[in-house]
Design goal:
By secondary structure, the chain is of the alpha/beta class. The protein has ten helices and 14 strands. Helix 5 (103-114) crosses helix 6 (136-146) and helix 7 (165-173) runs antiparallel to helix 8 (177-184). The longest helix has 20 residues, at 288-307.
């Protein structure tokens, strides 16, 4: 899959494609249905498929402190899009210049001059351009004038539940990992590189891998039973994700994972952590001894879960 960062990097060979536009946060089964139609239309027309995404996501630009927690970082999103057979991703920097483009300018500069789009798949509630003035009807009029086609992506429902990134976040927030996996088509995962931490876990008889999150907010907090992928090897474990209220904290969310029955140096390695069940909420303990007791109970519960 080819990644093009910014309109200025588009070249003549990037013209003529079938495209869709959106955040694609989580690349859930609703997104997967859109991408399946995208592949089908691209095959019919004999042109590449292209997904247009924004970085940061628009709500993160307008309201960074209240924007929804991301399900996937950019790197993971790109990997998931590649796995769905997308040929090309155009990643546009959402900045004041892009925000000020009118709907007509967005169509002309991005879709026509930039991509030479032959067919466009978007949701029927898709809004774009300055002050969100552009909508599906605007795109349909532009398509009729400029000679491309546009189709509204239908909402995907599973067992009567509308599939959306918001619904996945809601499932994660209440620890319903079965529903989250159903909506995503895979277990919810967080991937990152192992960094040096405070080494406190060693004092608590529970050495942990401190995994870099690189995100402002996370969609879940607490202690969880997890499985960890290390270069294709799967290891059971228990993870804490949160601000670590019982120790000196920087106020940022951290992901710390204790791997059961694993020995080896993980520093600098990239791990993928899949979440399966919530053990408890994150809480503040009065002493390190109390924290140590709680961690031992968490590990015992995780062992019982995985042995079962």
């Amino acid at each position: 899959m080819q990644l093009v960062r910014g309109l200025h990097n588009l070249r003549p060979q990037h013209r003529d494609c079938v495209a869709t536009i959106g955040n694609f946060d989580g690349v859930h089964r609703g997104h997967q249905a859109i991408l399946a139609r995208l592949r089908e239309r691209a095959s019919e027309l004999g042109v590449p498929s292209c997904v247009v995404i924004f970085e940061p996501q628009p709500r993160e630009f307008f309201a960074p402190d209240t924007a929804p927690a991301r399900l996937t970082r950019l790197r993971d999103k790109l990997a998931l899009l590649a796995a769905e057979g997308v040929d090309r991703v155009l990643c546009l920097a959402f900045n004041p210049r892009l925000r000020e483009l009118s709907a007509a300018e967005f169509v002309q500069k991005v879709l026509i001059d930039g991509l030479g789009v032959r067919h466009l798949e978007v949701g029927d509630d898709f809004r774009f351009g300055c002050d969100r003035a552009g909508d599906f009807a605007f795109l349909a009029d532009a398509a009729a004038r400029e000679g491309f086609t546009v189709e509204a992506a239908t909402t995907v429902e599973l067992d009567g539940i509308r599939v959306s990134s918001t619904r996945v976040r809601e499932a994660l927030s209440v620890g319903d990992f079965e529903l989250a996996e159903h909506l995503l088509g895979r277990p919810f995962q967080i991937a990152g590189r192992v960094l040096h931490g405070q080494k406190l876990g060693r004092q608590l008889n529970a050495p942990t891998a401190n995994i870099q999150l690189k995100r402002r907010r996370v969609p879940l907090t607490g202690v969880y039973m997890v499985s960890i992928d290390i270069d294709g090897q799967t290891v059971a474990g228990v993870a804490n994700i949160g601000v670590r209220p019982s120790v000196k904290s920087d106020g940022c969310a951290h992901l710390e994972v204790h791997l059961l029955d694993f020995a080896g140096d993980l520093y600098g390695r990239r791990l993928t952590v899949a979440f399966h069940r919530k053990l408890r909420d994150e809480q503040r303990f009065a002493s390190l001894e109390a924290l140590k007791t709680a961690i031992a109970a968490d590990i015992a519960a995780a062992r019982a879960y995985w042995q079962g």
